[in-house]
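Dear Dr. H.,

I hope your travels went smoothly. While you were away I took the liberty of generating a structure for the chain from your last submission, since the lab meeting agenda had it listed for discussion. I wanted you to have the full record in hand beforehand rather than looking at slides cold. The sequence, exactly as received, is reproduced here:
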Amino acid sequence: MGSGLAELRALMVPGEKLLAFASQRRLFALAHRRAIIGATSGRFIALYRGLLGGYTPFDVRWQDLNDVSIRAGTFGADLTIVSMANDDLGSQEHPSSRMTFHGLGKREAQQVYTICQAQEQSWREKRRIRDLDELRAQSGGVQIGAQPGAAGFSAAASAGGDPTERLRRAKEMLDAGLITDTEYESIKARVVDAL
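The corresponding predicted structure, in token form, is as follows:
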């Protein structure tokens, strides 16, 4: 498992941290080499090692994670990941892909599941806010030649100031832990919407 974990770490980008990992138990890997999965600070990664060497990676960015489920049995746990084939538009229907990893160590799989579940909930709320903002933008009109204080500029004017300054302050608050990712995305959407 040590070499598989080293290969998994080699796939990580600079600044990415491995939060939890699980490997397939030997009982479930009789016809192939064991798979290893990991939850990082930026994505879910799975690594299928080849019988004669090499590996095939599978990864899902957290923003593309649609659902995660776990089924724990007597001899191991099965983790299922459902991801969206995302084109980065919030309110579009997306086809999904499903991947199940059988026979993982139960305790380790539960740790990976907990991280995936937290990310799924966080990104579901971010997508909901983004969808609402996109629907609001679709339902509204374009205001040509609007002046400060007129409709459309009230959010920027009432918040007092330059949009780049508001975004910088919001980012500082996010980095300091004063606001959540969802609140930051909401502020960012309001600032952009007011332009």
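Two observations you may find useful: Residues 146-195 form one domain. Confidence is low (pLDDT under 50) at residues 142-147, 149-159.

With kind regards,
E. W.
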